[in-house]
Write the structure tokens for this entry.
Amino acid sequence: MNITQELADSVWHEPQSWTAKDATGAQKKLIKSQKPLFAFVAARAEPLGEHAFGVMLFMFTIVYRMYRKAYGRPIPKIPVSTIEKTDNETDGFFESLETDENMLDRMAVTRFGKHPEIWKYITSGIYEANDEDLDLSEEQISEMIILFKTVVDLLDEATSDA
């Protein structure tokens, strides 16, 4: 599946024209189609605090829409067992980086290189939100990036037949 820069740009800017009802509707559609995944993201984001939680859920909705539009049909439901397995793999990956002197190079090439257009929006969204007086700590930002890593891997797997 190919998420083009044009598609990513288009979806990223959609919320600028949304009403509160549109935003709620987009999130309700996501919950209906991916309840276990949404619950996982909400559960992992909630301890990060109210502001980080809101940013995380909003950005998750947008990233999911990028995948959904690129996939061209409903994304298959992601089961809890797959979510747990991928979450454990992500944790293991980041733990292995603690002793890796070439961590950034390895991350960029092996784990984040598949969809740079998505990661561009994830990182800019997190840092822009933080610039808006949210005062996210480095730990909160790191946890959000780790959570998005898991989400992107799950969505990649679920749409891998495209």
The helical segments are 5-13, 20-33, 35-45, 50-71, 80-97, 103-111, 116-134, 138-158.
